[in-house]
Every structure is written in structure tokens, then in C-alpha cells.
Structure to design on (265 residues):
């Protein structure tokens, strides 16, 4: 790792055994996004887009919160801001990079996830949360609509009725409720959260990364494709997977009744 990342203040970044861990690090502000945090997060994601040795990314937060969205303290008085510009040059740029990273991204929601923080989490590939954590679409409470693709992903995850109600009312959704609704994958007891997340990352890192990389995007693509087009897309992607080392290894391991040793390509 280069020194530049070690000097980061608002995002901690660590790479070890093919796992990259990104930790939002403004615990006093529940990891709300400052200008610096946008930039440091961008640099980290950009590094990951180019690092194909990484086979699992873990995103989490320091302290008692995951991320409280945009830092509302950075806005001075009644000064008008171009929020479109803020989105394009901050969150959207970073979300696009998150999609381009080959490895699956696990989001370990260690505490409250509000506003953009909630939707960054929901844009990850696998989302788990502490049972004590909650998700808040806080936007309408300050006169905004959900961003960070919240309006795209929420109705797909939990249906339009719930999506509209929780965003219009700003209702907090506890982790177990989020699981019941299909918003996230798992709610985990706080006491065993770190250990369970570690097991999850260790499981993913040993799986066939190239195939996971295709899985990461093909579900999203399905929303734009017609039925027949999508069959064609699956056929083309499966053709590529079929030529991979990991497919040969997976089949060989099955037939030899042993554990596969995937290399990620
Ligand atoms: C915060 C924040 C915060 C600064 C807690 N900022 N300090 C927006 C505009 C621009 C561009 C486009 O995108 C967006 C997207 C968005 O993200 S809009 C939504 C922004 N986020 C919110 O509206 C959430 C605001 N926060 C809260 O409602 C609460 O803090 C939650 C429900 C998250 C947590 O409540 P508590 O557990 O009671 O904690 P707290 O409120 O006491 O917060 C602890 C500290 O964190 C406190 O600082 P202090 O110095 O008083 O201890 C808060 O001021 C600070 N903090 N969120 N977004």
C-alpha cells in the first residue's frame, strides 16, 4: 500500500489476503460525507478498479454509525448549492466506480445508515447489518428526494408501496425489518457481527471471482433487457465463464469429491 492511503483521515483502507477493507472514518459525525471524504473514497475506489488481485471488498464504518449521508454542517447559512453538481462530482462518480470494481462488495452496516449513507449501502452486492442498525431515507425530512440511486434500487428491493412510504415519512427501518422486506441480506447479533462478517469475506474471497463479477452486474442488466435479449446475454456471459480456469476447477473438484481451489479467473 502506498503512503498516500495511510495518510487518509476520513477513509481507512487496508488490503490483506485478497480482501480490501474500506472504513468510513468520521465517527464523531456518524461518518457523514465531507468534501475530503468524497475525495478519499474516490481515490480508494479508483485503486480497487485497477487492482485485480482483490477478490472481496468490505465496506463498513468506524464507531457507532455506518454513514449519516451528506455532512449537513458543511452548508453555510442560506447559501444556495448546486446539489446536482455535488451528486455528479461526488456520490455518482463513486457509485459508478463501485459498479466497475471486479470483486463483490460486502457492506457491513455497523450502525445507523441515513440518507446517502443508506443508499450507498444498498448499492453494494451483499448487505448485512447489526441487529441494532437502522436504515433511514432521511432525504424528504430536509426537502430532498432520495439520491445515490435510492429511487432505482428501493422499489426493486422492497416494492413501490414500502419505498414510497418510508421515503415520504422518513421512517427508520430496523435491520430485522429490512431483512423481512428483502432490503438487505442478513441482520446479525451485535456481539457476533465482526466474526460473522469475517467469515463472509473469507467465504467470498475463495469463490470464483470472475463469475461473481458477472453476477454483480447481470441482474441489473436484466431490468433493461427484453426476455429474449437477456437469454442472449446469459448465453454470451456463460460462454466466457465456460472458458475460465475456475469452471474447469469447479467441475474437476466436484467429480473428484474435493474442495475446489478457485483462482478468480
Ligand atoms: C451529522 C450528520 C450529518 C453532519 C449526524 N451531517 N453531522 C444531501 C445534500 C447534498 C448533496 C446531495 O446528497 C445529499 C444526500 C443526503 O445524504 S441527504 C441526508 C443527510 N443526512 C441526514 O439528514 C441525516 C442527519 N442525521 C440524523 O438524522 C441523525 O444524526 C441520525 C438519525 C443519523 C442519528 O441520530 P443519533 O443517533 O441521535 O445521533 P446524533 O443526531 O446525535 O448525531 C451524532 C453526531 O453526528 C452529532 O454531532 P454532535 O457534534 O452534536 O455530537 C450530529 O450532528 C452528527 N451528525 N448526521 N448528516
Amino acid at each position: 500500500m502506498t503512503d498516500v492511503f495511510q495518510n487518509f483521515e476520513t477513509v481507512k483502507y487496508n488490503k490483506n489476503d485478497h480482501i480490501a477493507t474500506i472504513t468510513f472514518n468520521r465517527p464523531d459525525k456518524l461518518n457523514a460525507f465531507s468534501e475530503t471524504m468524497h475525495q478519499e473514497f474516490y481515490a480508494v475506489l479508483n485503486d480497487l478498479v485497477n487492482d485485480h488481485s482483490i477478490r472481496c471488498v468490505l465496506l463498513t464504518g468506524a464507531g457507532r454509525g455506518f454513514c449519516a449521508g451528506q455532512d449537513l454542517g458543511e452548508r453555510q447559512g442560506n447559501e444556495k448549492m448546486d446539489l446536482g453538481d455535488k451528486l455528479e462530482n461526488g456520490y455518482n462518480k463513486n457509485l459508478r466506480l463501485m459498479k466497475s470494481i471486479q470483486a463483490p462488495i460486502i457492506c457491513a452496516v455497523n450502525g445507523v445508515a441515513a440518507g446517502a449513507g443508506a443508499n450507498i449501502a444498498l448499492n453494494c452486492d451483499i448487505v448485512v447489518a447489526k441487529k441494532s442498525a437502522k436504515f433511514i431515507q432521511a432525504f424528504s425530512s430536509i426537502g430532498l428526494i432520495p439520491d445515490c440511486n435510492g429511487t432505482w434500487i428501493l422499489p426493486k428491493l422492497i416494492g413501490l408501496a414500502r419505498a414510497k412510504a418510508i421515503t415520504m415519512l422518513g421512517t427508520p427501518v430496523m435491520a430485522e425489518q429490512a431483512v423481512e422486506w428483502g432490503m438487505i441480506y442478513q441482520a446479525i447479533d451485535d456481539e457476533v457481527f465482526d466474526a460473522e462478517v469475517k467469515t463472509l469475506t473469507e467465504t467470498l474471497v475463495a469463490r470464483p471471482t470472475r463469475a461473481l463479477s458477472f453476477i454483480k452486474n447481470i441482474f441489473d442488466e436484466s431490468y433493461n433487457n427484453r426476455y429474449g435479449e437477456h437469454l442472449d446475454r446469459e448465453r454470451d456471459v456463460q460462454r466466457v465463464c465456460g472458458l475460465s480456469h475456475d469452471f474447469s476447477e469447479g467441475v474437476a473438484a466436484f467429480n473428484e469429491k474435493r474442495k475446489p481451489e478457485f483462482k478468480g479467473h
In short: The beta strands are 11-16, 19-24, 56-61, 65-67, 105-109, 112-114, 126-130, 134-136, 173-174, 186-188.
